Amino acid sequence: MDGSHDLELILRSRTPIVVIESRDEARMLRLLQSIAIRRASTNYIPVFRWTITDGLQRLDISLEPQTLNSEPTAVLKHIRAVNKPGLYVLLDFHPFLEDPVNVRLIKDICIQFRDVERQIVLISHKVSVPQELEGFCARFDMALPDESERARLVQKVIDEYNAENSGKTVQVDSKAHELLVQNLSGLSYADTNRLARKAIYVDGAITKSDLPQVMQAKYELLNRGGALQFEYDTATFGDIGGLAKLKAWLSHRRPAFRGDKSAAHLDAPKGILLLGIQGCGKSLAAKAISAIFGVALLRLDFAAIYDKYHGETERKLRESLNTADVMAPCVLWIDEVEKGIAGRGGETGTTQRVLGTFLTWMAEKKSHVFVVATANDISAMPPELVRKGRFDEIFFVDLPSEDIRASILAIHLSRRKQPLGNFDIAALARLMIGFSGAEIEQAVVSALYAAHAQDKPLADAHIEMEVAQTRPLSVVMQERIENMRTWAAGRTVSCD
Ligand code: ATP
After folding, report:
1. What is the distance, to the nearest Å, from the Cα of residue 243 to the centroid of all Cα atoms in its chain?
2. 385 and 468 both lie in a single domain
3. CA dist., res. 442 & res. 453, Å (int)
C-alpha cells in the first residue's frame, strides 16, 4: 500500500484541483509518475511539473523545461490556452494563490474542465485555498507508514548498511528494534527512512541508546513553530527527596504505560495532576516521571498558544496535542496548568474553549501520552479540571517532613561534591522547619558562597547561618498554604 491507489481514485474523480499538503515532495512526484505510467495504455494524459525556478517540464517523459512559463501567471495562462487534457503539478504555488489574477485564471481552467480536462495538482507543505476555488478542490492526505511498513523501511536500511559495509552486519537489540519501529510512527516515508538511517549508520547497530536521539529528531520534524518544548534536561527519582508514594504509584503503572505483554489486561494510565506548594519538587517530579517511564518529555507552553485571533488559540492547542499524540509514547508536562487554562481574565470565551479542547482530548485520547499537569494555585483551578475521572489521580505535594528535609539536604550537598560526613545532617534538617526543597537547596548554595568568601570548607555553621536568615514561604504565605492543605485533604492523595 503506497497510497497511489487512493490518489488515482481522486484524480479520476474529475475534480479540477487536487491539493496535497506534504513535505515529501519527491515521493508525491514518484506516485504521480507511477499513476501516469499505469494509465498510459488506457487513458493517456501528459503530466507536467512546474516550479518557479524551472518553469514547466514534462514529468512522464524527459523533455527540456520551458523556462518561458516560469512566471506563475504565465504558466496559468499557458495552461488555460492549451486545448488538450493534461495533468499539471504545481509545486510550492501556495504564495501565488494570494494574487487575484492567478485565482481568476485557475477558476477559468476549472470552469472549462468539463470541456477540456486540464487538472491541477497543488503540492506544498501547506496550501490555503481561496474561497473562490474551494468548490473545485479535493484534498489528498498521504497515509503515513503503518507498523509493518515501518518495519520494512527499517529492514531496508539494515540491508543497505550491510551491502555498503562488506563484512559487517548491523547489530540488532530486538527490544530496541521494536521500540524504534514504534517510535518512528507519525512520520512520512522520507522522514522515517532518514531517521532510521541516522540511528543505524552512526554505529552499525540498533540499541536503546539510539532512541532518545530518534525522539529528539522526530520532535524537531514535527513541532515546526509549535508550542511544545522538548525537555532535554531530565531528572531521576534519585535526584528527589521524598515523594515515595508517587514513585510507587508510577512504578506500578509503568508496565501498562509501556505496553508490556505482562500488563496487556491493564488500562494504560492517562495522567496525573500534581498540586502543591511552590518549590517542593513538582517540576522535578514531572522530569523524573519521563525517566521512570523511559520516554521523551514534552512541555506544553501555554504562553505560546494564546493568540489574539478568534479560534486560533484552540487550533494551536489542538495542533500541539496532535503532535504529542504522534510523539507517543511520551510524557506531556503542563506546568502551571491553572494559569494556562484559567488564568486569562477577561477572555472567558477563549478560556472555556481552551479548557473544552483540552478536556475532550484527555477523554478521547488513545495514544500513550501521559499527562503531568502541575499547579500551585487551587483557587484558580477550574472545577471541571479537578473533577474525578479527569486524571487518574490528584497528588498533593506538601512541605517536606524532617526526614525528607534531611534527604533533600544530602542530595544537594552531594551534588556540590560536599562529603556528607562533614555535616550533622539530621540536626540541620531539624532547624529547617517549614523549608521547601527549593529553600533547602538555596541555603546550601548561599552557604557555599559564604564559606568560599572566608576561604574555608563548608561547615554546619555556614548552613545554620543561612537558615537563620531565611524567612521561608511557609511563614510568608502561611494562610495560603493552610487553605491549600484544607482543600487537598480528602480530594487528593499525598505524595509521601
Ligand atoms: P514551582 O511551583 O515554583 O515551579 P516546583 O514545585 O515545581 O516549584 P521545583 O521547580 O521542582 O519545584 O523545585 C525547584 C528546585 O528545588 C529543584 O530544581 C530542586 O533543585 C529543588 N527541590 C525542590 N524539591 C525538591 C526535592 N523534593 N528533592 C530535591 N530537590 C528539590
Report:
1. 27
2. no
3. 17
Instruction: Please check whether residue 249 lies inside any domain of the structure.
Output: yes
241 within ligand 1 shell (Cβ under 6 A): yes
Q: Where are the beta strands (DSSP E) in 364-411?
A: 369-375, 393-397
Using 50 as the pLDDT threshold, list the residues of the chain that sit under it: 1, 345-346
Tell how far CA 37 is from the center of its chain.
39
409 touches ligand 1 (CB under 6 Å): no
Q: Which of 243, 245, 283, 425 to mutate to test the pocket of ligand 1 (most atoms within 8 A of CB)?
A: 283
* Rounded Cα gap, residues 345 and 380, in angstroms: 11
If you measure from the C-alpha of residue 96 to the centroid of ligand 1, how many angstroms do you get, rounded to a whole number?
Answer: 51
Cβ neighbours for 8, distance < 8 A, ≥ 6 positions apart: 35, 38, 39
Q: Is 410 in the pocket of ligand 1 (CB under 6 A)?
A: no
232 assigned to some structural domain: no
Specify the ligand 1 atom closest to the Cα of 241.
28
- The single residue listed with the C-alpha cell 477550574 is 382
Q: Does the Cβ of 373 fall within 6 Å of ligand 1?
A: no
Render pLDDT for 147-206 as a digit per residue (tens, 0 to 9). Answer: 899 999 999 999 999 999 887 899 999 989 998 998 888 888 888 998 999 999 989 999
Query: What is the atom index within ligand 1 of the atom nearest the CA of 276?
Result: 6
186 lies in the same domain as 294: no
Distances (CA, A) of 450 to 148, 285, 436: 61, 30, 21
Q: 242 CB less than 6 Å from ligand 1?
A: yes
Please work out whether the CB of residue 281 comes within 6 Å of at least one atom of ligand 1: yes
Q: Whose CA is nearest to atom 10 of ligand 1?
A: 283
Across-strand partners of 332? Answer: 298, 371
Amino acid sitting at position 205: A
Q: Looking at the structure, do residues 248 and 389 belong to the same domain, yes or no?
A: yes
What is the dihedral sign for C-alpha 436, 440, 445, 446?
Answer: positive
Q: Is 235 in the pocket of ligand 1 (CB under 6 A)?
A: no
Which amino acid type is present at position 328?
Answer: A
Task: Answer yes or no: do 246 and 376 share one domain.
Answer: yes
State residue 342's pLDDT score: 66
Domain that holds residue 439: 402-476
Q: What is the pTM of this model?
A: 0.71
